[in-house]
Amino acid sequence: MTEPLLRLDALAVHFTLGSALSGGVRTLKAVDGVSLDVAPGECLGLVGESGCGKSTLALAIMGLVPPTQGHIRLNGHELAKRDRMETARTVQMVFQDPYASLNPRQTVRRTLADPLRLHGIANRSEIDHRVMDMLAKVGLRPDHADRYPHEFSGGQRQRIGIARALILQPRLVICDEPVSALDVSIRAQIINLLLELKDELGLAYIMISHDLGVVEHVSDRVAVMYLGRIVEQGGWQEIFEDPRHPYTRALIAAIPDPFHRADDFAKRTKAHGEIASALAPPPGCHFNPRCPMKADRCVSEVPLLEAVASGHRAACHFRDRTG
Amino acid sequence: MSTPLLAVHDLNIALASDNKSYSAVESVSFEIGRGEAFGLVGESGCGKSITALAVMGLLRRPLSLGGGRIVLDGQEIQDASPAEMRRLRGSRIAMIFQEPMTALNPLSPVGRQIAEMFVLHQGTGWKEAMDRAEDALRQVRVPSPERRIKDYPHQLSGGMRQRVMIAIALACSPDLLIADEPTTALDVTVQAEIIDLMAELCAAKGTAILMISHDLGLVANMCQRVAVMYAGRIVEAQPAHAIFATPRHPYTRGLVDSLPRLGERARRGRQRLREIAGVVPSIAAYPPGCRFNPRCSAVTDICRTTAPAITTLPADGLVRCHHHD
Q1: Which of A84, A211, A249, B183 has its CA at 20 to 30 Å from residue B118's CA atom?
Q2: What is the pTM assigned to this prediction?
């Protein structure tokens, strides 16, 4: 097997809250032992509800929060030991809200040219050439370069956000809910663009989204996260056609299905209640208070992420049962 | 057909800005039957939320009613006095909003906020009202309501807060519940629970629902009929099952086709998503003729000059398009 582009090895990111004086120190395990690979050119979908740790995971990969335990390897090198600038040339990020993530006082040209300058490209005509080339790639016109973010619609702003992420020619782009802040009629444009760029530039993506329709559409592999842990991972078809963790099934069942194709599936597998606080996760399997298949063992014993089939793993004591 | 619970006729809402007046909502008409769940779908800025505010009598400057009639149970309410509207709101029409944290009073325990409904609208004493508030919390399946009744909104999770909102809204068994994006701020599994809860309680109380959302799938799933709004106009209305199967307006068709639907890739392989070109027009620059014309793939000359009239569909429904065949 070729070296993965990104390898997470038992990665944990813990935050300590409070102090000894104010009622004691508590530990929030935002990411709690995550192991994942992303191969070059691959799209990994990362699914989970708010508070499950997916954004913290993204920040750790970007080098923006230090891991508490475990390793992040990019191209086979430990992230912590890599040059910060070199990491920026390898991993970039597209954010959810294109209104908040662009500097309102900078023209598009400056937003795209600054990273090039910072990374040692001094030749003005080369900078210009690369900025124009990138604008064309994301579907913006050359005359857009000298405008400010407020002159653009949400969809166009997200195109600028994508251009900024790609200008340094990274190999991995983390897309954190890239379409959920956009108008519904604009989303297809951005999803199509991301897929085209992936093929054209050979990019790998980590696609963080709560929209399972989008994740199924774009992903090669999918990882499902719950309270800091990966509870299931596998190829997109295995996750969506043969989900083995009850939480994955609950997520799928929660999607409104206007054709009522699977009414009884939905009734059997809907989850109840809400995600627990990461400060006080339930013992055993974190999902057990909401699980329709809960047994005594689920409270006493943490299920390990074990193989269901080749490349498909689920962290459930009953991963061989489907309902 | 018997008289509908709510009939909105030819509703117009004007937006005043810089000495100019823009038409934010134009000749919107729809009817909701008793106990019916009706969905109003559209993107941000299309006028769906202000249509709901107009029904509640809550339009404030720079928005104002520019004409039309709102008839609740045979009684015209568009010109009702603020005092009359206050009596209607809460007892006969209730509303829940997207963000329950901003809709609830942060300084008052949630039990008190529910009990207030009984005190204000039904003249109940506070002691009895608090007992009924506890029952109401139990009905919306808040665990241990006897303790939760004393909690402040910030002590509850997002899903629990929305349950409290539902308890307040349904406290006096209103005839109509207006739900404006009630689950947009919530996680998907919680959304599913809240929607089921809302539908179940309304069915039990005979309350009709006006559900407002950008999510066509969600609305089509819980409503009997769905109307689609674009740029201030209703462009199509159909029974919920038909709007996905046979969308008639190019905009609706575009929406249905453009969203990746679960299971689609397994059945047909990955297809390029069908895009709707262009962007949603701003209210100050609505195009003449059909407002969808700059984005429409079937546009002809007449679409650019003449606003299409409403065509009634043979099987219950309407479409506003020159080329709906």
Answers
A1: B183
A2: 0.89
Residue B179's DSSP bridge partners are: B96, B211
Distance of alpha carbon A153 from alpha carbon A156, whole angstroms: 5
Single out the residue of B76, B106, B103 nearest to residue B88, CA to CA.
Answer: B76
How does pLDDT run across B244-295, given as a tens digit for each residue?
A: 889 999 999 999 888 888 888 988 889 999 999 888 888 889 999 999 999 9
Token pair, residue A99, equals 């209104």
For A239-282, the pLDDT digits (tens) are 999 999 999 999 998 887 766 545 555 565 777 788 888 888 99
**Radius of gyration of the CA atoms of chain B, in A:** 21
- What tokens appear for B42 in the block? 């559209």
In chain B, the residue whose alpha carbon lies closest to the alpha carbon of A180 is B184
> pLDDT, tens digit, for every residue of B190-241?
898 999 999 999 999 999 999 999 999 899 889 999 999 999 999 999 999 8
Distance (Å) from the alpha carbon of B259 to chain A's nearest alpha carbon: 7
Distance of alpha carbon A94 from alpha carbon B90, whole angstroms: 43
Q: Residue B308 has which token pair?
A: 């299409």
Identify residue B29 by its one-letter amino acid code: S
Cα–Cα dist B27/B291, whole Å: 14
A27: CB partners within 8 A, 6+ apart? A14, A15, A16, A17, A279
- Which pLDDT score is estimated for A1? 53
Partner residue facing B189 (CB), from A191, A240, A251 = A251
CB contact under 8 A, A210 and B274: no
Q: Do A272 and A293 contact (CB within 8 A), yes or no?
A: no
Contacts of residue A52, defined as CB under 8 A and 6 or more positions apart, other chains included, come to: A225, A226, A227, A228, A275
pLDDT score of A160 more than 90: yes
Tokens describing residue A105: 């006082």
Question: What is the C-alpha separation between B250 and B254, in angstroms, rounded?
Answer: 6
The span from the CA of B230 to the CA of B60, in Å, is 22
Q: Is A162 exposed, middle or buried (0-12, 13-18, 19+ CB in 10 A)?
A: buried
> CA of B260: which chain A residue's CA is closest?
A213
CA B298 to chain centre: 29
Helix (H/G/I), strand (E/B), else coil: A174: strand
- Tokens matching residue B314: 């043979």
Contact A274 B187 (CB under 8 A): yes
Closest CA to A271 of A242, A249, A286: A249
Average pLDDT over residues A145-152: 94
Q: Are A132 and A142 in contact (CB under 8 A)?
A: yes
Q: Give dist(CA A215, CA B102) in Å, integer.
A: 31
Do A270 and B259 make contact, defined as CB atoms within 8 angstroms? no
